[in-house]
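S., here's the first fold you wanted:
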Amino acid sequence: MREIVYDTYFWQNDMVRLRAWSEADWEWDYYNSFDTLAVRLADCKVELPPTVSHSKEYSEKVSSLSTNNCRTTFAIETLDGIHVGRINILLDDHQNGTFGSGLLIDRDYRGKGYGTSAMKILLKYGFMEKRLNKYSSSALEGNEASIKMHKKLGCEQEGVLKQNIYTNGRYYDEIYFGLTKEDYLKL
């Protein structure tokens, strides 16, 4: 196979490259399923104990950019090919022109800008290629990394749903963020 030249590749920037999730990525999913705090912050719940078969089934379901519940899942890699995370884009509201995302970075690579860099690629795709008008997302109260990332991306906090999510024995606020294409283009 010829060497791939990434000079003008859309799905990368100066820090990360997005690629299709593959069935072989089940190990990454399995390993990161043991990070209960991160999974709780991302999914607002605790899953049953991880199993190899569940991770393999998940990876098979979302591999090769197949859409699952209007979500397309990508692996996040450094430019050196190190798998550092998973990101998906939620494209379920074409009528209103909105989209969302989900993101999980491996604990060993958090706080280094990989998630923010991957989000920049998805925002560019949503606004500049899919002609969508608004990115919307929420973060669970206490998810400081997600809150910081959204603000860094230019998102505005649009509201708080008080005590909206129940997990870990109590109700948490859900903080909503948004970014319009107009504001994105100003950045």
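And the second, which I think is the more interesting of the pair:
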Amino acid sequence: MEQASTHPIMSLRHITKDYHTNSEVVSVLNDTNFSIYKGQMVVIMGASGSGKSTLMNIIGLLDRPTSGDIYYDNETIHNLGDESRTSLRSSSIGFVFQDYHLLPHLSAEENVSYPLYLHKEIKSQERIQKSQEMLKQLGMYERRHHYPKQLSGGEQQRVAIARSLVHNPDLILADEPTGNLDKQNEESIIELLQAITREDKAVVVVTHNEIFQHYADVFYQMVEGQLQEVSSRA
């Protein structure tokens, strides 16, 4: 696969993550190295407890490593303060979860526009316009006034993906994005994530679902806190 840029959008170098429980130190990530380029879907699989969720939290700037270096768009970010990390996360990273995490008291349109409230420069009418445009792209415009309980699982996941894209991030992190879906909706969401990479964005999927390895540009197994590249179409 041809990479869209000569440097990765994000790189992790020699990342470790330790947790202290009583007098014991538990090492979850052990000298983990990872890079992703725009235009790629990277898929990470591994057994429960192998460190996948911890790695995802570090990539998403929700947690800090014990040691190691993190670079975003060639700039070092592992020493950023909390405010700067939040700013980078809200502008450049989108999240998709297995359980959708939609707010039940908000309509589809309101859920999609919600992240834009973090951007004070975006006015009310622009928020509505951006959320409606994103719902159109994902085939959910006609359902924009429906609440999550009125939507199927596949529809809720499409709304969740629209929400993750509305602020135009370069990196999308998907944690078991098809875990609650039937086969038809599963394939639809995978195709949608593939399409996102063609928009010059990077997608990282953490999953137990083996079907993803057939769609991955780079496929890793997480084994005892380390990433092992299994295959690549690069």
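Why I say that: The chain is about 30% helix and 30% strand. The longest strand covers residues 24-36.

Talk tomorrow,
H.
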